[in-house]
Amino acid sequence: MTLNNKGSEIKGLTDEIIDTGCKGCILDGVLIEDTYAEAFDAYVTSIVITAVTRNLAETAAISATGYATSVAGGGAEAGIDYHITPQQSPDGRPAVSIMMVHPNKKHLQEQVIERLAECVLTAPTVRVFNGLPNATEKIKTTLHYFGDGFEYQTKIRDRDVWGIPCMGGDFFIEKEIGVVKGIAGGNFYIMGVTQMTALTAALAAVEAVWEIHGAICSYPAGVVACDLKFGSLKYDFMKMTTNHLFCPTLRDKIPDSLVPEGVRAMYEIVIDGTSYDNVKKAMHDGIHATCSINGITKISAGHFGGKLGSHKFYLRDIV
Amino acid sequence: MTLNNKGSEIKGLTDEIIDTGCKGCILDGVLIEDTYAEAFDAYVTSIVITAVTRNLAETAAISATGYATSVAGGGAEAGIDYHITPQQSPDGRPAVSIMMVHPNKKHLQEQVIERLAECVLTAPTVRVFNGLPNATEKIKTTLHYFGDGFEYQTKIRDRDVWGIPCMGGDFFIEKEIGVVKGIAGGNFYIMGVTQMTALTAALAAVEAVWEIHGAICSYPAGVVACDLKFGSLKYDFMKMTTNHLFCPTLRDKIPDSLVPEGVRAMYEIVIDGTSYDNVKKAMHDGIHATCSINGITKISAGHFGGKLGSHKFYLRDIV
Amino acid sequence: MTLNNKGSEIKGLTDEIIDTGCKGCILDGVLIEDTYAEAFDAYVTSIVITAVTRNLAETAAISATGYATSVAGGGAEAGIDYHITPQQSPDGRPAVSIMMVHPNKKHLQEQVIERLAECVLTAPTVRVFNGLPNATEKIKTTLHYFGDGFEYQTKIRDRDVWGIPCMGGDFFIEKEIGVVKGIAGGNFYIMGVTQMTALTAALAAVEAVWEIHGAICSYPAGVVACDLKFGSLKYDFMKMTTNHLFCPTLRDKIPDSLVPEGVRAMYEIVIDGTSYDNVKKAMHDGIHATCSINGITKISAGHFGGKLGSHKFYLRDIV
Amino acid sequence: MTLNNKGSEIKGLTDEIIDTGCKGCILDGVLIEDTYAEAFDAYVTSIVITAVTRNLAETAAISATGYATSVAGGGAEAGIDYHITPQQSPDGRPAVSIMMVHPNKKHLQEQVIERLAECVLTAPTVRVFNGLPNATEKIKTTLHYFGDGFEYQTKIRDRDVWGIPCMGGDFFIEKEIGVVKGIAGGNFYIMGVTQMTALTAALAAVEAVWEIHGAICSYPAGVVACDLKFGSLKYDFMKMTTNHLFCPTLRDKIPDSLVPEGVRAMYEIVIDGTSYDNVKKAMHDGIHATCSINGITKISAGHFGGKLGSHKFYLRDIV
Q1: Nearest residue on chain C to D265, judged by CA atoms?
Q2: φ/ψ (deg, to 5) at D301
């Protein structure tokens, strides 16, 4: 046990980790398991929502990216990517950039149009711009048909937009939104000596990922509290069930638990991004933020032997 | 122009309203049109989400009620209903009550289960309780199958819950959630002399509705900026398009515009509730909050001649 | 170690506490030391700030109660007490009730007037009302002199107010604000096995105290991270210095440390209130919220042998 | 009246402005009066507060900069300047940079030390770093005496800090904080056709100023609602009273009102900064953000014929 620069943040309770038999390296007193995260190809789009105030832009963004944690559920994965200052936004107003993700490009387009129609066209003072102007692939935003013939084409600064007369004022939306081949499912696991320690470390990781442009955490608060395995031991009709090997309260009840001794809670951070490098950078910054919290004993990552996807992120290369 | 108790909030620019030929009454200097809101029957459920902190409860609630503005889009209408103090919550922790609404009870149940599985089961430290314990109709929350046989029945205080072992700690969910026949589509329109005036008045209305337990505004920020009419003048394939009669920027371009002179923006507040009385009370409090803002010239409401639903809320009875 | 109803919240690491020799009781697996909090008499005032939106009311309230953690520093102790719905506020708008506290009534009045003049008179759309209308003692709010002769007396509903013409609109302030003899310095200490566990438990306690009308926590986030003792071992010129007996990082370096084994962080909750009963209720609810978090080993309280004040809150009577 | 790119944001009600006889230019349909803001010399310091989460850093920052709107009141002017990502902060954790301002360097130092001792030393998990490492003038942060001899010198990355053992963990503070000669009192006035329009435009201006590193708005929400003049027409004992010439509700009651016809509310944005250029840039971005809101008729600025200070910001040079 050493008193490091963080002072009161005593890096204790970690001595026994090195005895768990896991190979790996130590970062800031935390064992980084020698494993990798497995991720899969997905189409990714980035949409900039501007409004009179940042709060209104954010409100529309939150609604449009809600109920979108996992493509396994049928819809998209989506989340707020980053904030844009008025000085740097497409129309001089505060803005929020959101990301939507799906392996199937057509499904992604449908989700984009439905979510914009239901949650953004209806929101006060907002406008929609292409967040990936350099992307070569595009999807058309066909919301202008809501204008019922009263819509018109115009420009806002350098962007080609449709103007749609609405009750609260004309709504503007850029004609095309860029799409790139990105990556979904980058991930790492955080194991802590108490639930609150693991959770705070997970939330710190998410704060760091938020700062990476081109990477999102699609789950509520950015944190996954229930890891699911494919299939079920008991219920044939369930496609996914709790990963019992990772449940701290089952540790003493099943012979094959993978929960290390002394770990009372585990959380997973799942990251989607516009590129391999953005996901890798997000994993790096997230893991470093996590390890700055005392009481974290181990970082690991999830893979499925190549069944889920073809991209590997080795933790030893990342930290 | 008179200087009322509100001082600087000069109730001006309203003199001409009385000349519009509309019948109606005056509330706080604002014309209340003599019309009614038309609303329809819907099943309504109320779900209490608790967590270690209110912020975490709210984060899960926001995700679970996202992308749910209008049943016309296929999904549910949903939103945060109210906050519950630790002292009054089912398990002694801060809580948020959410509402989900759909005319079809089976669809509502599907939405409840899918949204809870995707956005709440996965969220850190949360638990789920029945928000309508006195309702005679119930829907079963079948999330315990995610427990894969490791789930167990227990009690938290007086509630019968399933415990599901998860990575971040055991997840608890009450076995049944109450459902009532409520009402969707209560509404009123706010017309203002500038866009910011109408918007601030709309947001003030939403703040008042938030205080009514059993009533929600499902749109982003609680405000509808784009009123849609059924069908289209021009595009056969569009089920709904902008209500051009209510667009201020079309006022001088079409002969039959319904936008009063001097009105630069209109917003609509749409309210769902567990009962006729709750929706009525929410409309009352929302309209009064709206009329406390200067620069509002007129309040109206939307109806469809009985095509949408059978419930009528006459503004003259409400204010 | 037992698995209680909270499931994953394993109440472990507490077995050894009972061996510390402290007398006391056990609440939810946490040792409640058999000691008491010592508090002192203080004048307390309650001021209601209303605004067009709750956010604007809160912004003014935060500014007016900033830099006011401890009367030891010379100024007042102040904080936000509770929120008031538009439906229940003095003028029908969203409101925030703030509390200001000082042992000297004249000093309290000065602080009230200076803080209102600097932070509330200048804030957009706000008004000020008496939050203790039943109090028999009053202080006059003399801000109407800022009106320079243009001020006027009027009523807002049942309240007698001054109207002061201002640039952004007329500012209204009730003529008198009630003052009561209340209590400052109610407190308890939270000891946890990691810093994040102790901190989360402290924040949960503060959330519970927020719900008590007539009780505030004046420190940032409601939590005291640095406990001070009167005087100094080394520096004559310091009136207060760190309470070294309570510092976890000094535990192994000084012979008389009071930090229990296994405790890595301690936080204090300090509570001021309008009455003994309100402070007691806030302590009760705060301690119960704290003990619902796993990894808390002990709750204690601070006293000074009667040097600080005459009021005692025995923990054994509270929990 | 023209329909510009902003669509529904009809730039109306502005036609008459050009007839007011004021010289000036038109920006986005808004008259920019040909006048200047007068500002004065002040010492400015910048302090970086880091914490485990951004929210905790912000909470301490808000407390430390509260009750600090105007040096006329005796204390400092202070506010949050900008946020710092974990990736760019001095210790890898989320951070907030605050600014404190006073014409007298010694008073500034006293305010810094008192505010840090009362509001930051006591706040959970925070640390304090020099926000102006390149400044040649420094003030010593003497909080280490609170360590009572247990304090120690160490380094966090490249910063020389004191470590002070505390109850919640060791507190770290950089030994010296940079100070520069900056400017206080940069300002402009916003005049709108309704109170809500002027207020929204003011809040939009503040959002733009927030993005400028090295510039703050010290008033609640960044907006001044009550402009004060030096002295009084009626009350000798008042050093400052409402600027009656700028009160919309007095417009028709006094012969010399400076409120233009049709203006119902005015707000002032006051800006302090680390340099003339930063204040100028903040004024530029703030004015542009303001003018993007419809219903703003005029922008002006305040000066006192050189009595207040020696710095002039001509609006015609800024926009």
Answers
A1: C168
A2: -150, 160
Instruction: Decide if B193 and D194 are in contact by the 8 Å CB cutoff.
Output: yes
- Residue A157 burial (10 A CB sphere; 0-12, 13-18, 19+): exposed
Nearest Cα neighbor of A256 from A276, A233, A275 is A233
State the pLDDT at residue D5: 31
Name the amino acid, one letter, at B108: L
Among B146, B125, B148, B103, smallest CA distance to B51 is for: B125
- What's the gap in Å between the CA of D18 and the closest CA on chain C? 22
pTM: 0.93
8 A C-beta contact, residue B121 and residue B98: no
Q: CB of B141 within 8 A of CB of B132?
A: no
Please give the biggest Cα pair distance in chain D.
Answer: 72
b/e string for B285-311 if b means 16 or more Cβ within 10 A? Answer: bbbbbbbbbbbbbbbbbbbeeeebbeb
- Percentage with pLDDT > 90 across chain A: 87
Q: What are the phi and psi torsion angles at D249 (to 5°)?
A: -75, -10
Identity of the residue in B86, B169, B208 whose CB atom sits nearest the CB atom of C87: B208
Q: Is D3 on the interface with B (CB under 8 A)?
A: yes
CA C232 to chain A, closest CA, distance in angstroms equals 22
Query: Which residues of chain D does C75 touch, with a Cβ-Cβ cutoff of 8 Å?
Result: 67
Q: Which residue is associated with the tokens 């004048």?
A: C43
- Which residues are registered as beta bridge partners of A46? A99
Strands B30-33 vs B24-27: parallel, antiparallel or unpaired: antiparallel
B200 inside 8 A of chain C by CB: yes
DSSP state for residue D224 in the 8-state scheme: B
Q: CA D186 to CA B130: how far, in whole Å?
A: 55
Among C94, C83, C82, C132, CA closest to C112: C132
Tell me the nearest-neighbour CA distance from B8 into chain D, angstroms: 6
Phi, psi of C41 (to 5 degrees): -70, 145
Angle subtended at Cα C300 by Cα C294 and Cα C305, rounded to the nearest 5 degrees: 175
Select from D178, D189, D182 the least CA-distant residue to D215. Answer: D182
DSSP B291: H
d(CA C67, CA C287): 26
Q: Does the ipTM surpass 0.90?
A: yes
Q: Which residue in the set D8, D196, D293 is minimally distant from B295, CB to CB?
A: D196
Question: Using an 8 Å Cβ cutoff, are A299 and A267 in contact?
Answer: no
Return the half-sphere exposure (C-beta side, CA atoms, 13 A cut-off) of residue A144: 18
Is the CB of C115 inside 8 Å of chain D's CB atoms? yes
**CB-side neighbour CA atoms (13 Å) of D101:** 35
**Which of A10, A196, A249 shows the shortest C-beta gap to C200?**
A196
**Local structure of residue A224 (DSSP, 8 states):** B
Least CB–CB distance from D294: residue in B8, B10, B194: B194
Condensed to tens digits (0 to 9), the pLDDT of residues C47-62 reads 999 999 999 999 999 9
Each residue's pLDDT tens digit, D37-51: 999 999 999 999 999
Residue C36, Cβ neighbours under 10 Å: how many? Answer: 19
A209 in Cβ contact with A281 (< 8 Å): no
**Residue C129 and residue C155 in contact, taking contact as beta carbons nearer than 8 Å:** no
Give the burial string for D170-183 (b: 16+ CB within 10 Å, else e).
bbbbbbebbbbebb
* Averaged pLDDT for residues B196-220: 97
